[in-house]
Amino acid sequence: MNGKVKIGLMGLGTVGTGIVRLVESFQEDLYKQTDSSIEVSKILVQNPDKERDVFVHPDKITTNPDDLIYDEEIEVLIEVMGGIEPARTYILQAFEQGKHVVTANKDLLAAHGDELLRKAAEKGCDLFYEASVAGGVPILRTLVQGFSSDRITKIMGIVNGTTNYILTKMSQEGLPFEQVLQEAQDLGYAEADPTSDVEGLDAARKMAILATLGFHVGVQWDDVSCRGISEVTQEDIQYGKQLGYTMKLIGIAKRDDDCVEVSVEPTFVENSHPIANVNDVFNAVYVYGEAVGETMFYGPGAGELPTATAVLSDLVAVVKNIRLGINGREMSFPYHEKRLKSPDQVFAKYFIRLIVQDESGVLAKITQLMAENEISLEKVLQEPHGKGEAELILVTHSTSKASIEKFLQLVREFNIVKELKSCYRVEGGE
Amino acid sequence: MNGKVKIGLMGLGTVGTGIVRLVESFQEDLYKQTDSSIEVSKILVQNPDKERDVFVHPDKITTNPDDLIYDEEIEVLIEVMGGIEPARTYILQAFEQGKHVVTANKDLLAAHGDELLRKAAEKGCDLFYEASVAGGVPILRTLVQGFSSDRITKIMGIVNGTTNYILTKMSQEGLPFEQVLQEAQDLGYAEADPTSDVEGLDAARKMAILATLGFHVGVQWDDVSCRGISEVTQEDIQYGKQLGYTMKLIGIAKRDDDCVEVSVEPTFVENSHPIANVNDVFNAVYVYGEAVGETMFYGPGAGELPTATAVLSDLVAVVKNIRLGINGREMSFPYHEKRLKSPDQVFAKYFIRLIVQDESGVLAKITQLMAENEISLEKVLQEPHGKGEAELILVTHSTSKASIEKFLQLVREFNIVKELKSCYRVEGGE
């Protein structure tokens, strides 16, 4: 039964380098797991002359994707280039050649997952992508297999390490956003152009993948409502602390009555919730199932070796499937129709911070306005703000997003309100 | 491809009842996952007249195991009776009949896992047991598949909910062990005879299973060194708090240089370690892999529906394997030789609490004795204890268990030491 499996590797950046390293150092274990010796036989790179952190025989390096896609000896393609194109085209071509594919490419999966999976199934090929979400945490397998017999109703994820690092530093050290972002860039935790991380786009892609697998509904990246952390201020964080909350960039996917909501936004999490304690660059995915209740999965969200080992765990699965002759037969496609909630179906608690005139009756007028919009109040915090003004923090009971949006609009126009400072979703207290 | 799969259920206690409930309420989802309708067709019980929390047609109930084992229509047997015999015999008989088995029976797996798995493989049958460890947390799948490409070097588990509940209450409310145990019994969290939980035996069985799968070494329950929580005092917990530690019953499995250690013992965990915040009846398994680094998996360790859904996730896997024709072909057996560490190979930090004479030079004499035994000191805390005595807390740097045992023996005989109060392992600060 044992044999040799040749791999084509597309991309030799951080993750690609990790893959080459691990295949070498874990050769014996991989053999014991799969009855096969695994060899990275060709590597596609952009610049063959670039200096690498790992030794690769020059004969293996190529700049021509066809050297991998049309090499008949290569059975599995590992794609770690990132980006939509040309990765999408290469992968589709690989399926046409009957090759199995392992990828870490969240952008591609969140945009074209359905197309790729259908092509793979049609050609009897495997397509696995564990590394695309939460790096070293095997959360996709957990959703698909571990919770196959449960009905998942809520997924909360800290799935972007860069923003979690920034918010952790802001919370723990009282530093402003810009300064911590600069530090994160200096440490290599944030990219030179941090938009995708900071504005929540990266997290949105991962949440689309999690919601698709968790709810059996085809959610795409543009179904995810998305708000980043660049407007989060130190004042917000400090007022949240007073109320027992920690600020996190949280991806939330909920299913109620066959309708789903998926969003990424800066969120106050009650300190007692397990996800509130997930700090620095760590990721965590909290899953609530009707039968199982509360679970959480925690680990490194990125990094050379954590991501590489996730890719290789998929490779082990592909090679086992080759031995069993069942490639392409374990695919599961979303079987529930996609129905996205409208804003009047999305319910949450909200934290609202206002600057108001510091005079008698103001709180009464504001709470009156809330009541008129069917918003009830859980907590109030009022502090003087100088110049005859007061800082007013309102935390609502669970209320619809539509009501909150209408209320915020009215508040902006209200003459006793000087400024609407911020509004954040609150999670974790149910 | 779709069809009908008949199940025989052995046991209709808490978990068995949950299984009947979930098969019914999740029928549609199970069908979508497996292309098969699943029917619990026979149920083995001890007392057919007992009142049940769930409706079962009387025709399905039997007291004769042969009605399940020799029913040719039954393809899968679910065993949730517990205990070694007759469960072991029934399962072996079922394999002889070509039936697949799903079980939640940790005692059986930790004692006879190898025998059962070999028989299953010989007969081309599946044997899955996800529910045997950490109830609703799919940790066995995670170890086998999620970390298939990594080398796991450490597993730390809070795998017994009863003791975690007791220690949490003792820590948070300052109550003595006996009172909290009584409360836990009243709440149904602890059994009338709590020995198996309180003395760590239940946890030891689960750690044997985790170590076997994580390290690819055949660890049995009697390889696990085991100490319970009944001697843990409120004073120990309070002194630990002063030093930044939380008391937990921790199962530890470590592998160094191809030697393994597996133990269950009350342990002080540094508060910064993620497992320190796992409270009440929740379970968590912390896994350290060479490539992935730190990960943790958290959820309910027991309970009707969490355990039942874990059993059913295994059933889904079995039914998928039936459709794919690959039952019994995914077995993995330990491929590393079992070499257990001797006490001079087990290294950890230790917390030692002594009552000593409160006179000058005592600390010097004790630290001198430590140095002679190659133990170095990380922290010291001394407090008056009245009657010319002092309470002395010593926390060591990492040191061998053999050295600590020798030191404790010498301390007991030392004339300036009035009493050796306690000694606990300390984890989480590396």
Description:
- 2 copies of one chain form a homodimer.
- The first copy, chain A, is α/β, with parallel strands linked by helices and 430 residues long.
- Chain A folds into 3 domains: 3-135 and 304-324, NAD(P)-binding Rossmann-like Domain (Rossmann fold), CATH 3.40.50; 141-300, Dihydrodipicolinate Reductase, domain 2; 347-427, Alpha-Beta Plaits (2-Layer Sandwich).
- Chain A is 36% helix and 28% strand.
- Chain A is built from 14 helices and 17 strands.
- Chain A has helices spanning 14-25, 27-34, 66-69, 87-96, 106-122, 139-146, 161-173, 177-186, 195-198, 201-215, 234-242, 304-324, 362-372, 401-413, and strands at residues 3-10, 36-44, 61-62, 74-79, 100-103, 127-128, 152-158, 225-226, 245-256, 259-270, 282-289, 293-300, 347-357, 377-386, 389-396, 399-400, 417-427.
- In chain A, the strands form 2 sheets. In chain A, strands 7, 8, 9, 10, 11, 12, 13, 14, 15, 16 and 17 form an 11-stranded mixed beta sheet that branches. A 6-stranded parallel beta sheet of chain A has the order 3-2-1-4-5-6, sandwiched between helices.
- The longest helix of chain A is centred in the last third of the chain and has 21 residues, at 304-324.
- Chain A is elongated and about 80 Å long.
- In chain A, 52% of the residues are buried.
- The model of chain A has no long low-confidence stretch (mean pLDDT 95).
- At the A-B interface, helix 2, helix 6, strand 12 and helix 12 of A face helix 2, helix 6, strand 12 and helix 12 of B.
